Known about the structure:
Layout (H helix, E strand, L loop, with lengths): L12 E5 L5 H11 L12 H17 L4 E8 L5 E11 L8 E9 L5 H21 L4 E5 L6 H9 L3 E3 L2 E5 L5 E2 L5 E2 L1
Amino acid sequence: MTSFIHDPEQDTWAWNKAKYEEVEEILDLIAANYEMEVAGILSGSRPRMALHLYKALLTQAFEPWSNLVLTCRDKTSNKLLAWSWLERGKYTPFAPEEMSCAEFLHIDLSVSLRNRMTLTAQCINLWEAWSRDCGIPVITSTTIRQEQRGFLRLHEKLGYTVRGSIAYKRLSTTPTTNSKGEISE
Length: 185
């Protein structure tokens, strides 16, 4: 769906790799919009999330092929609109292919539904481009949101196969070297 490709000239926002100084804003976005999704199931810990986010950003700085943490900001106000975290090196017990796995995609819920869908699709396209550049053959995206139909339907429109709350997409059929230096078949 080329209508969702990020166009830096036309879009009123910009996607970039996340920076250390954005961590507190990311944590604020999580607290304001997403903590209620796991309330009663998991006990959210801001310090724990900060620790893991700082580690991911440090790893991204020195090993840019290991994970991808992005932020999206409004060009005029510089407001944080969205952030995401994609990791590689994931495997299923029954298949040798390496997968990149979307850990988080949070979008400010005050953004219009149309723009949230556009931001989601753009982020997925950015994940796919990064995964292809890294030679990762399969990408997965999951959701814990109570209302997930639109999110998963968008994945289907982008060529994903949806099973339950997990969306899968094969990006390559050729063998690749995984993060451990082994050949995936």
